[in-house]
Amino acid sequence: CESQERGQQQQRQQCERRCQQEYDERRREEQQREERERHRRQGRESENDEMSGGGGDKGQSKERELRQEFERCKQDCQSRERGQQQQRQQCERRCQQQYDERRREEQQREERERRRGQGRESEDEDENTSEEKFARCRQDCERLGIGGQLQQLCKRRCQQQYEAEVKSERRTIHDDPEEKLRRCQKRCQEQQHVQERRRECEQECQKKYREEEHRGGRRRDGDEDVDDENYSPPREREWEEREREISPRSQGENPYHIRSQRLQSRYRTDEGHLKVLEKLSSRSELLKGLENYRIVVLEANPNTFVVPHHCDADSVLVVTRGRGTISIVRQNNKESYNIECADVITVRAGSTVYLVNDDDNERLQITKLVTSVNIPGQFEEYFAAGGDNPQSYFKAFSTNILKRTLSATEDQIERLIGQQSQGRRQLQRPGFIKRASQEQLRALTQHASSPRRRGRESTGPISLRNQSPLYSNNYGKFYEASPEDNKQLHDMDVHVSWTDLEQGSIFVPHYNSRTTVLCMVVEGEGEMEMACPHLSRQRRQREWGQEEEEEEEMQTSTGSRYQKVTARLSQGDVFIIPAGHPISVVASGNRNLKMVGFGVNAKNNERYFIAGKDNMIKQLEREAKELAFNMPGREVEQIFNQPRLSFFVPQERSQEEEGHRRSHPLNSILNLAGFA
């Protein structure tokens, strides 16, 4: 504040110097003018006397005016200084408030330390988090009414205070086992909604605390030969190994599950809509590899027409409900195909597409995986015909260009691009999905073909459910169109899958070697469980206050740990399965579950099953199983050889298990899939 004041004093002094310079300059000019007047009056004595008297009065009057202007200028400088002094005083008051607040916080911290030393640690969280205080500090800077450099100085002080507190908190959490225990127990209370599970969680926290205390005691006793690795909990320790669930209620914590409400309408009419899922890379750093992919859902009512448009993105389309006709227009040819549920077709960027739903009762729904070719993660539709929303791209061209290149009159051009002026009124066409007459629908569909798998080079629809399922039994079916068998998918490096899971059945745990799968629930409800090392690492880093370098050291000493990612699945939900992540899906007990999946980076992908009859663990030697699982090899073989079904298994539960499941809706699928 004082340095700011010194700057303001310098500004005032400069202002006064300018006033003095202006006064001196004006005074010199006035003296020069009087001198010129005196020379002109020489030789006329009588007039000179008269002029001398008047000129003297005028000179004195002018001198007074100049002096008054000079004084007014100085007063302006002083009034500015008073305003700046008020800003300085406000700045000093702000500094005093920050000092008092920091002092109170330090006293409170010392009081908490004293109470912990007496065994009476407070259970309450500090009401004011660092983030809240930082936000409040910035608001105070704005409320003070100071501007410019002073406000920036104030906000910089807030930032410095916030960074210091965050660093102090991390140091406290990292060094203080009691603080870790308190936070661990608080998480148990927040996350465990069943009393028995909460009590078990708190006991695990207490166990970890005793181990931390024991480790600290041995270090204080000077045992330098024992390193951090020996003090780290072994990998088998349950409290570290336990897979913490991410429930759908914990907003923002599960980046791999996106509810259907996150699909936002881009175009909507009375006859249908086009919805686009949010950009996946914006949800989490873990999804940066999916930045260029978007999920789009198109729905059209019965007896409707989707107007011609093209897109600056490659698309893989899957019919997820209904049937209809799709026409794809390129520069020198047009292809029209009849499409039905579970049909797949690709559309290259720039190809003009239009669709027809000629069914009298059922809506046509198409789910698309879109890969942008311009801006990563962004794409646009371009409509040849339009009105207000969407507009026709012809509207961007001048009437002169359109008249000459289309051989049309100005009136025809106006009607072509969807508007016709009538006085001050404009007539707008309906949106991009329109109702069509039966005659129009018949004309649009009469030349469409219905090819089904004409070979690897086919550009027509691939019917997933008309081909043999890749995996199948009484409890489910899995269909897949791979890039190895379909050139149009090979060019886009995508595979498409369709899963029909019977009610109460489980798709056994498995993982993909290379591909990341974006799945959408087409129909039904269910649950998913997935093991993820990345979320577990992030959670530990947040909870134990570890910096990035410390986290890397911890990985080398403790190995991988997994967090169980779980979610309830409903129609329209999307969930992500990253490559290498073991996953299992279970259908609800009262409805079948249908899902469509788009696998990116699909070339040379392999799917590995880790449960069920065909699990890959069976191929290990008995000695390898024994060494790996730390159990007798014969017992491990019995566990992995026991399942009698592959790929899909029923979820058989006794009454006791049924009651337990109602208490724990996200019960481990691994136990139900042959590991119990």
TrEMBL record:
Low complexity bias (residue ranges): 1-13
UniProt-listed Pfam families: Cupin_1
Renumbered residue ranges of the record's region Disordered: 1-67, 95-133, 212-259, 440-467, 538-562
Record InterPro entries: Cupin_1, RmlC-like_jellyroll, RmlC_Cupin_sf, Seed_Storage-Functional
CDD domains referenced in this protein's UniProt entry, alphabetically: cupin_7S_vicilin-like_C (cd02245), cupin_7S_vicilin-like_N (cd02244)
Compositionally biased intervals (Basic and acidic residues): 14-37, 95-121, 212-222, 234-247
Domain Cupin type-1: 256-414, 462-637
Protein family: Belongs to the 7S seed storage protein family.
PANTHER family in the cross-refs: OS03G0336100 PROTEIN-RELATED (PTHR31189), VICILIN C72 (PTHR31189:SF41)
Protein name per UniProt: 7S globulin isoform 2
Organism: Ficus pumila var. awkeotsang (Jelly fig)
